[in-house]
Amino acid sequence: MKLISYSLIVITLLLSLSCSRILYAYEIDGRKWIGGTTDFYVDIQGIAPSGITWNTAFIAAMNDWSEETLFDFNLIQQAIDPCLSDGLNGVEFTSDLCGSEFGERTLAVTLNKFRSQILGSPAITEADIVINQSKEFNIYDGRLIQSGIQGLDFRRVALHELGHVIGLDHEDGLPSMMSSSIGNIDRITEDDITGVNALYSGLSNCNIKQLRFGSVADGLSDADCTVDDLTVGGGDTSYIDLYRFELSNPTTVNFSMSSSTLDSVLILSDQNLRYLAYDDKSSELCDSSLSKSLPAGSYFLLSNTYDVPVKETCGNTGDYVLTASYSSNKKAGLGNSASLNGGFANASFVGGISADNGQNFGNHFRANQSLDISATINVDPAHQGQSGFLVAAAIVGEQILFLNENGEFVDSAAFPGIIVKHRNLLLSAEELITLATNLIPADLGIQEIEVDFYTGYGLDSDPEELYFNQLPMNLTVSPQ
Length: 480
Ligand SMILES: [Zn+2]
Hints:
Strand content: 35-45%
Number of helices: 4
Bound molecules: zinc ion
CATH class of the largest domain: Alpha Beta
Structural class: mainly beta
CATH topology of the largest domain: Collagenase (Catalytic Domain)
Low-confidence stretches: 4-24
Oligomer: single chain
Shape: elongated
Number of strands: 30
Radius of gyration: 29 Å
Mean pLDDT: 92
């Protein structure tokens, strides 16, 4: 992360098609739309001398970009004033550049507005196109001026300006629709497509880990991806770890990142890297913490640091411990089915730990609280009605404990190679497993522990196979 300010910045790109040529490859600086899509309002009156409407050509240009690249335009067939700063993107023929004069050689101008971001380059928030109505246009393929055809091809002007809307700058090296001069290229090129796809695929440059509630030891080093890799532009070379998590219900999440060596920064975003919250200053030490109530959905937690150290005592690489907890009034989704032997089951799992008789569920409790722990398995319809068995296990460090038929956890080391069953039964659509009721860790002499619970089922016809929750149900107990 860089030190940033949060003002809205407005930058106008005045990009005209001129007659000069310079040599480069595709040009991007990281400015782009969050999520790789935007609405565009189009209803241009009139028909070209060739008999094609301006609307048809402009919409075809939008579709070309949408079909050939990762970016998507969503057409709204309605005219809006492109000179209004209204958060809406539009296009019109105009007599001037929203109050200023067009340059002598200017065919069209794209006006982009930006908002600064917690990470990377500013995001594009509005883009409008004004087309110089004093120029003579037509619509045709191939050579720019052909004998017997009057005017410049409007379609390639639309393609060029829409390239600016997406976030491309001029590119005068390889064949490109983004050449600063209008020419014989009448469709977007390989270089244009490569440029847009690079701009909108930053997430694929980084390794994404599944967030595990509880605590995880990790670190930031030159083996990690940089903010610049992730945001594709912006010049921030600090290292970053990405953790993905899914919430099946409205949930409050709490994260802390602690380190003795690196200046911790925690950032929360949605799956499109729309930043929702961040913390870079929660302590005098090198630590960071963050809490947020979120609706159901997919999110990223980003563990980052400054690219230039800010606190004297904290650097920008090193180890950290990430602690994650949650609370919700519903049980949490534990993902789809994982399996012991690689088989597939269309099963899903939910689980919850509650200290208030099921009013709230979470993973972080005090040692003197009385806990109820249960999970529900939604059994694969193909397995329902078959005779099978339920299994529940608690993992504490290296130790695996099975829940036996009497509801007691027994050490698997006493049963080498054997899966201890909790219950034999005919499988129903939903199977509830109660792992503990009124469990007070302090009463067992436990003040501090971290446990991951797994629940699963198997079929008597294939007793070696087991289908269980992909994501562990975590219990973190802290001293009272
Ligand atoms: Zn241009």
